[in-house]
Amino acid sequence: MSFCAVINCLDGRTQLPVINFLMKRFDVKYVDMITDAGPLGIMASMPDSSGAQALIGRVNIAIQAHGIQALAIAGHWDCRGNPVPKETQLEQQHTVVLRYRKLFPQLTIIGLWVDEDGQVHEIEIA
Length: 126
Description:
The structure is a single chain. This protein has helices spanning 12-25, 39-45, 50-66, 86-103; strands spanning 3-9, 30-36, 70-76, 108-114, 120-123. The chain is of the alpha/beta class. The protein has one domain: Beta-carbonic Anhydrase, Chain A, CATH 3.40.1050. The protein has a five-stranded mixed beta sheet. The longest helix is centred in the C-terminal third of the chain and has 18 residues, at 86-103.
């Protein structure tokens, strides 16, 4: 079995598009879903909070339990848990992806944006 994981909003509109994208992108059979309401805001603005630390703990579980080799950090339009403009979410995503690449150097970590049409876009983060 092959797995990757994603930290995604709990918003159901984003789940299937992200799962389908990641299954193709990383050629995996399963996607571990790590969800919260507006996780980008939590991870970017409050990295030492219990919520952000819980997300890190869940990534560690995915690594240990399923041997994930890749992780996506997803944001989306109309997020009620992180009600900031797209530009702000993309800045948050950049910060979070770089932070997680330091925390988990063994993983391939990418950023995703889900638009209002349910299309998933991989965000370039150098």
